[in-house]
Specification:
This protein is about 45% helix and about 20% strand. A hairpin with a 2-residue loop joins strand 6 and strand 7. The two termini are about 30 Å apart. It is an alpha/beta fold. Helix 4 packs across helix 5 and helix 5 crosses helix 6.
Length: about 200
C-alpha cells in the first residue's frame, strides 16, 4: 500500500518512483515497468535477444521485479534500448484490457551501503519509456514521470555520452564492459520485451 495518498500518484495513468520503496509508495497498477539501464535491463535484453530464460531469484533488482509481480501486475523490463517496443506492448495490454490502464515505472537505481543511489542512466531509461508511451498517446503522466520524459527528449542526443560518463558506466568500462554500456545506450535498437513470468524473465 502507498505510504501516503499524496505520494501515490494515483491521479495519473503513468507514474514514476524509485526502487522497492517507490513501488510500495505508488498506487497499485496493472502494469509495472522496471528500469535499470546498466543492470537488470541490460542483462534481461541480452538474455531475451539470445532466446534464453533469465532466473530472477537472488538478483537484487530481480527481486524488485518479482515483488511487483506478486502484487498481480504485468511486469516488463525496459530501458533506452527497447523503449518503443515496451510502449507498443503496453498499448496492446491496454487494448486487451479494454480500459485505461495504470502504469508504474520503477527506476531501480543503484544499491549501495547507504541504501539506494540515484542513477542518471535509470532516469534516462525511465524517461525514454515515458516519452515512448507519450508518442503512442499514453501521456497522462505524473509530474515525476513528465519530468523524466521531457528530460529525456531534451537530452536524447547526448544519451550515449551521458551513459558512458555516468558513474555506473565508468565503473563498467573499468572492468572491460564499455561495449555493453554503448549497447544499452542504443535507443530502440531492440524489439524484444522481457516480461516476468514464473520467477523468470522471458520474452513475449
Amino acid at each position: 500500500m502507498p505510504s501516503s495518498p499524496a505520494l501515490a500518484q494515483s491521479d495519473y495513468q503513468v507514474r514514476l518512483d524509485w526502487g522497492r520503496s517507490g513501488l510500495e509508495r505508488l498506487a497499485p497498477a496493472p502494469v509495472v515497468i522496471v528500469v535499470q539501464t546498466l543492470g537488470l535491463s541490460l542483462r534481461a535484453l541480452d538474455a531475451t535477444e539470445s532466446g534464453e530464460t533469465m532466473i530472477l531469484e537472488g538478483d537484487p533488482t530481480g527481486e524488485l521485479a518479482l515483488a511487483a509481480g506478486r502484487e498481480g501486475a504485468h511486469v516488463v523490463v525496459g530501458g533506452l534500448r527497447n523503449a518503443a517496443a515496451v510502449a507498443a506492448h503496453v498499448l496492446e495490454v491496454q487494448r486487451t484490457r479494454g480500459e485505461r490502464t495504470g502504469i508504474s515505472i520503477i527506476a531501480a537505481g543503484s544499491p549501495d551501503a547507504d541504501g539506494l543511489r540515484f542513477a542518471v542512466e535509470d532516469l534516462l531509461g525511465a524517461g525514454a519509456v515515458v516519452a515512448a508511451l507519450g508518442d503512442l498517446g499514453i501521456d497522462h503522466a505524473s509530474p515525476d514521470a513528465a519530468v523524466a520524459g521531457e528530460g529525456f527528449r531534451a537530452l536524447a542526443g547526448a544519451a550515449r555520452h551521458l551513459l558512458t560518463a555516468s558513474g555506473t558506466g565508468r565503473a563498467l568500462a573499468a572492468v572491460g564492459a564499455r561495449e555493453a554500456v554503448l549497447s544499452a545506450a542504443a535507443r530502440d535498437a531492440a524489439s524484444v520485451v522481457p516480461i516476468v513470468r514464473d520467477g523468470s524473465i522471458v520474452t513475449v
